[in-house]
Amino acid sequence: MQPQIVLLKEGTDSSQGKPQLISNINACQSIVDAVRTTLGPRGMDKLIVVKNGKATISNDGATIMKLLDVVHPAAKTLVDIAKSQDAEVGDGTTSVVLLAGEFLKHIKPYVEEGVHPRVIIRSIRKCLQLCLEKINEISIKINKSNATEFRSLLEKCAATAMSSKLISQQRVFFSKMVVDAVLLLDELLPLNMIGIKKVQGGGLEDSMLVAGVAFKKTFSYAGFEMQPKVYKNCKIALLNIELELKAERDNAEVRVDNVKEYQQIVDAEWNILYGKLQKIHESGANVVLSKLPIGDVATQFFADRDMFCAGRVPEEDLKRTLKACGGAVMTTAHDLKDSVLGKCDLFEERQIGGERFNFFRGCPNAKTCTLILRGGAEQFLEETERSLHDAIMIVRRTIKSDAVVAGGGAIEMELSKMLRDYSRTIAGKEQLLISAIAKALEIIPRQLCDNAGFDATNILNKLRQKHAQGQCWYGVDINQEDISDNYALCVWEPAIIKINALTAATEAASLILSVDETIKNQTSGGDQQPQMGRGMGRPM
């Protein structure tokens, strides 16, 4: 009798070999099914309710993936590629997941027949290399010298990114706004210099772009309403100091033996405060912004001298103001010179919806801007913000990498045709695998048709015919329920989206194929909470 060898802790579940691979592929399929229907202009949205009852309505693949709490280890890789696509390019998150899932789906029969995963991975890598070469070869380079042409191109890319979102009806309006916003930034195009503020109420068309900074009116004290609300050519002091009487935090003990001495202590405290305020006034600043609270005494003091103040300004807003108006954030009231004060042409406070906003316009080195979004429901505003974020990322990417391809499944069909032709020139197992991947690439146009309710087989046949004749920009045309030259229709996307999507999808597929054993230890790990007792750990 052989003694039984116990190697792993009991309750450890280990599965290996082919069944393991197949089950991982199946798990990825079910993830893909979750986001499959959100692709394209006719894609549907998902409503996800998380633990605390907050509902999110979204069409953005990455957002949906983040909110789905995926526990399956292999399926998590798909969530990661969606996140990476979101961080790198901003749009195309649904496509990435779809492609990865579809690669696996078409390769699954070969795995079942016993083709070694390494052979498959090699073929996938080969395909990727061919695809990237093809994209670089046929993508259309942008001419940046002609400013108006370049601008209209950016608007088209932004409109394509928004066509599948909730705000697709207003995409002309928003694409102009997004391009304006991005072109206001400096060379590096930092994302955090575009502030997005959401105000409920009003229609989407009431949204506006402020070339400069706008932020919500902060918490204010008595005397605030007496301050002027509009300045021309104002100077702005940005502070990081409290302008109010401090309560003594340290338990300092002061012994006094008569009232006069006590009065001196109180006076000293007031004098410190008034000294600070006087210095700020003498510096010639008209607008005082501080990160820390500005108390009621200070508010009244400023109001008497026709100055405007706002305390407890959020840090990112203060930083944006600094970038736009110049100056520096001071931590002391001494030494306020002209060189550390910001400047702008027009400061005003305006009512927008139910909120009041402080606007700084006409800033000298304005490399920052603020989008103020209006709309009905809160979820709707959040989804609008996500859609605009995608569009902003796309415009940034297009400016940085200057090549575009046609969207609407056109580029995928072209790559699919190219791989098919290539697979006929080689012998061996790779031929089958490469043609399987060529078929997998057709998922994008197919899904676009399915989501719009067209006859996918019919349209794909027409597309294959066009591409075989060498017209490489033909894709699905949602509005005509037919195919058309998407380059002429201005359905454009930056080539980098496709490059990134294909790279991420092939990497995820290779990763999942190269796993052949999963060892899961149920009992270890901090999953179990101690049982709730009745206080003091007594049992119920």
From TrEMBL:
Its main location: cytoplasm. It catalyses: ATP + H2O = ADP + phosphate + H(+). Gene3D superfamilies: GroEL, GroEL-like equatorial domain, TCP-1-like chaperonin intermediate domain. GO terms for molecular function: ATP binding; ATP hydrolysis activity; ATP-dependent protein folding chaperone; unfolded protein binding. The keyword Cell wall biogenesis/degradation does not apply. GO terms for cellular component: chaperonin-containing T-complex. InterPro entries: Chap_CCT_eta, Chaperone_TCP-1, Chaperonin_TCP-1_CS, Cpn60/GroEL/TCP-1, GroEL-like_apical_dom_sf, GROEL-like_equatorial_sf, TCP-1-like_intermed_sf, TCP-1_chaperonin. It is found in: Cytoplasm. It holds the Pfam family Cpn60_TCP1. Molecular chaperone; assists the folding of proteins upon ATP hydrolysis. Known to play a role, in vitro, in the folding of actin and tubulin. This is T-complex protein 1 subunit eta. It comes from Dendroctonus ponderosae.
